[in-house]
Amino acid sequence: MEYFMIGFVTGVAVGGTLSISLIIALASKLARYPVVEKKPIKDEEV
Hints:
By secondary structure, this protein is mainly alpha-helical. The chain has helices at 2-37, 42-45. The protein contains two helices and no strands.
């Protein structure tokens, strides 16, 4: 039972890390295009 819990926790940790990395990758891809299209982001920079 202990090995199952260790494997479960490890699987959740690895799965969470992969999902977070995928979300960050998708967010960065989605964030790049609008930044190029929308010029009036200078207000946020100031």
